Amino acid sequence: MSDRTEFRRLLLTGAAGGLGKVLRAGLKPLTRTLRVSDKAELGPAGPEEEVVPCDLADKAAVHSLVAGVDAVVHFGGVSVETHFEPILQSNIVGLFNMYEAVRKHGVRRVVFASSNHVTGFYRQSEKIDVDAPVRPDGLYGVSKCFGENLSRFYYDRYAIETVCLRIGSSFPAVKDRRMLATFLSYNDLVELVHRSLLTPRVGHSIIFGASDNAVKWWDNAKAAHIGFAPRDSSDPQRERVEAACPPLDPSDPAGVYQGGAFVRAGPFDD
Q1: Model confidence, pTM
Q2: Is 260 left (phi over 0), alpha (psi -120 to 50) or beta?
Q3: Catalytic option among 99, 122, 140, 257
Q4: Helices and strands per DSSP (H, E), number in the chain
Q5: N or C end of the chain, less CB within 10 A?
Q6: pLDDT band at residue 3, thresholds of 50, 70 and 90?
Q7: CATH pick for 7-264 out of 3.40.50.620, 3.30.300.180, 3.30.1050.10, 3.40.50.720
Q8: 140 is a catalytic site residue
């Protein structure tokens, strides 16, 4: 979106993850210094990088991590349906630690990786917008509902702006029929995060993260102020995907609900 250096220092959490690796490169044009963090191995710092390992559940470590940054792109945490304890520590306790650190250090903008799984129990035949009540499809989705509500509280109480990105399925290529609707290309992901950082006023915004796919489950009209205009689409991959992936049994919940296989994941016995 921009070739200007907009920030002195940006923080990217979850930088060792699949999307974190994409953003580690994609955020470089916006900042003089990119601070990258994760619990997993991050490798050596590149040019204009700071590598700071951090467990989000460690309050003191998170507060140290946030010191001196201008904005936070928060992609850290558990990203799959699993046992509650790791979700609790990373996505709930960890997110609270992050927002408290943001508040105490005076950071004014957060881009939060929410998920389409906050609305996973809507049917694939429905089209929803950001005002539709949340219907999470698992404990992971519940944790992202918590994140959206927590960020709303920090905006209303402390005027910390957040863009919550309800990310669809961001991969190099479409893997199955569901992803024909949920696909978000890497290029569109980077553009979406850029827009979320550079839009002058965002308040508390929620936007669904999907490319310009012909099949649309989500209406982003109420996030038009972000100015996100996806350039890619799943459509060129449709013929390949439909040939490789037969339709699911109509009685399979994964083919009925927008959350796909997440709606039938678990239960997980701790």
Answers
A1: 0.96
A2: left
A3: 140
A4: 9, 7
A5: C
A6: very low
A7: 3.40.50.720
A8: yes
